[in-house]
Design goal:
This protein is of the alpha/beta class. It contains eleven helices and twelve strands. Helix 4 crosses helix 6 and helix 4 crosses helix 10. Bound molecules: 2'-monophosphoadenosine-5'-diphosphate.
């Protein structure tokens, strides 16, 4: 089997996905390559999709800002991508391009692998902060894994309500979340607040000791949000693991192989810190 794989998005020059996916190819003894296909201008998107079709690439990842732009170019969406309304993985199946979204399920897998005992209990009280694309994916994945006590907090409540519609999850404001922070066992920060800046979405002064606190931001690796969580005795979960696990799920779709990611977490951390 030879897999020709790509990443589309903009900007992607510093993406760690090529390192991750090329390691997966190596680790599974699969021939092929994973390379960047930068699309700087959305006006050329259609033309670029034609090129990828003609090249018969086996699959590609889609990142910012094209996770929704890609949808009309696909032949089919799997159920998760359809529910989330965004695609991060495309696979050539026969003549068809099929769209998937592995962000949410990747994230939940990462959390379960890091905290197997705590996450075994589907009655844990989970708070999701934010209501963007990442929140939608994570919410759906948790909901489908049968976690029963989900609360979503967002600056704009209506956006949160749109995500939880048809479920028993509740939506609160960020202030309410902050005031009642000690109610939660797992807190997941899903917005870009804290990325390359010393800001945090809510204050964690009243955090309950032992709470799992996760931030999907991995630039910096230890965000201000996670720093405060650590000071308050929380168990922190870093955002780069989401990157690794969504990649693992994408690779599984393309290759039908489950890749062993042992040791990659630490190496990815080093690369994010810029030591390599
Ligand atoms: P996306 O996930 O869609 O790519 P994002 O900017 O990473 O986009 O995240 C959007 C989410 O971050 C939204 O929930 C947004 O809140 P609103 O729905 O109220 O717009 C939230 N967000 C972004 N900046 C924020 C800030 N400074 N304070 C609080 N929430 C913020």
């Amino acid at each position: 089997m030879t897999l020709e794989l790509k990443l589309i998005g903009y900007p992607i020059k510093h993406s760690l996905s090529p390192w991750i996916q090329n390691s997966f190819l190596d680790r599974t003894g699969t021939d092929g390559s994973y390379t960047l296909h930068e699309i700087a201008d959305v006006l050329t998107f259609e033309e670029e999709m034609k090129k990828l079709r003609e090249a018969k690439v086996n699959g590609f990842n889609v990142t910012v800002p094209y996770k929704q732009t890609i949808i009309p170019f696909l032949d089919r969406l799997d159920i998760t991508a359809e529910q989330i309304g965004a695609v991060n993985t495309v696979s050539l199946e026969g003549e068809e391009w099929v769209g998937y979204n592995t962000d949410g399920i990747g994230y939940v897998q990462a959390l379960r692998d890091k905290f197997p005992e705590r996450m075994k209990d589907t009655n844990v009280q989970i708070l999701i902060l934010g209501a963007g694309g990442a929140a939608r994916g994570i919410f759906h994945a948790l909901f489908h894994e049968d976690y029963k006590d989900l609360t979503l907090a967002n600056r704009t409540k209506a956006k949160g309500e749109d995500i939880v519609e048809g479920t028993s999850a509740s939506v609160i404001t960020l202030k309410e979340a902050e005031r009642n922070i000690d109610r939660y066992d797992v807190i997941i920060q899903t917005t870009s607040v804290g990325m390359n800046e010393a800001k945090q979405i809510i204050d964690l002064t009243d955090l309950k000791e032992g709470t799992i606190v996760s931030d999907i931001v991995y630039q910096p690796l230890v965000t201000q949000f996670l720093k405060q969580a650590q000071e308050k005795g929380g168990h922190v979960h870093y955002g780069h693991t989401m990157l690794l696990y969504q990649a693992q799920k994408a690779f599984e779709i393309w290759s039908n192989k489950k890749v062993n990611i042992e040791g990659m977490d630490e190496e990815l951390r080093t690369r994010i810190k810029g030591d390599k």
